[in-house]
Specification:
This protein is an alpha+beta fold. It has helices at about 15-25, 40-45, 80-85, 90-95, 105, 110-120, 125-130, 150, 230-240, 245-250, 250-260, 270-300; strands spanning about 5-10, 30-35, 50-55, 65-70, 70-75, 135-140, 145-150, 155, 160, 165-175, 180-185, 195-205, 210-215, 225. It is globular and about 65 Å long. This is FAD binding domain-containing protein.
Length: about 300
């Protein structure tokens, strides 16, 4: 199929992007185009018929990436592949998750902010943003505002963005000393949508376990965040940081978490019961990896 007819504009200022979206809303609706890896298939299948596409790629500030205080700020037009190659030391969880996003060719065009704004329940990056407590910078007709990741995702393919809003950038907190990340997912083939996945962040110091956050994806209408700090603290007290022992110790609390986290009714690829089994298996694995990474980072 081919897209329905649309107008195409390419502003050079963020204020003009918002202005074009406001005008498009009055004329029947508009959509933002950055990488197009999610939007173009939707247009081709005529699942969406915006009257206007507003291209962000000529807005200089949206193509920037860099440190902003204690965060890594990623502009709306920054490609996933660029972040994958450069963010490893700053935001390890983001660097671990990105190779699982589609294929290299898709990541060479797709953007981090585009994936967040698309909010696919099976996407990796919304779960990473939720797990790390990312902040999303939104520009709209009423000015700029910041939205916490836990408030941004409102449902399947649904966010807090209004029809004339633009996700201008996202800020991921830089990893601290003693902080470790782990990521695991299962898909039918590498690059396919995840049947289930887990992003984990832990913070260990000599004083104990300060955080053990787990975000699941592919199992509900949006990523789900839960804390397993208590079970991880008990496991570390008994077994230290041995990954195999931690994995065995965390299986039971992971199974309990999976019962709550998996709310999908299932599809042709996996039943809810199978997804619960996946979350039960993946959660201890991701947490154990995060603990190992935490110790390495503390020793560095």
């Amino acid at each position: 199929m081919k897209p329905a007819p649309f107008a195409y504009v390419r502003p050079t200022r963020l204020a003009d992007v918002v202005g074009e979206l406001v005008a498009a809303e009055a004329a029947g609706g508009g959509k933002v185009l950055a990488g197009g890896q999610s939007l173009v298939p939707v247009l081709a299948m005529r699942l969406g018929r915006p009257r206007t596409l507003v291209d962000l790629t000529r807005v200089a500030e949206l193509g920037q990436i860099g440190h902003d205080g204690g965060s890594l700020r990623i502009g709306a037009a920054v490609r996933q592949r660029h972040v994958e190659r450069t963010a490893g030391g700053d935001v390890p969880l983001l660097a671990q998750a990105l190779p699982w996003v589609g294929h290299r060719e898709i990541r060479s065009r797709g953007t981090v902010c585009g994936s967040l704004a698309h909010a696919d329940p099976s996407a990796e990056l919304p779960a990473v943003a939720l797990c790390l407590g990312a902040t999303l910078d939104v520009a709209g007709p009423d000015g700029r505002r910041r939205i916490a990741a836990e408030e941004f995702f409102t449902g399947a393919m649904s966010t807090a963005l209004g029809p004339a809003d633009v996700l201008a950038s996202v800020q991921f907190p830089l990893a601290r000393a003693g902080e470790g990340a782990g990521f695991a997912e299962v898909a039918r083939r590498h690059g396919d949508f995840a049947l289930a996945g887990v992003a984990a962040r832990v913070h260990l110091t000599d004083d104990g376990v300060h955080a053990a956050d787990v975000a699941t994806f592919g199992v509900a209408d949006r990523p789900q965040l839960r804390s397993l700090r208590g079970p991880l603290a008990e496991a570390v007290t008994r077994h230290g940081t041995d990954p195999d022992a931690l994995g065995r110790e965390l299986t039971e609390p992971a199974a309990a978490m999976a019962q709550e986290a998996v709310t999908t009714t299932g599809d042709a690829h996996a039943s809810p019961a199978y997804r619960r089994r996946l979350v039960t298996a993946l959660t201890p694995r991701a947490l154990a990896r995060a603990v190992t990474a935490s110790r390495k980072r503390a020793a560095a």
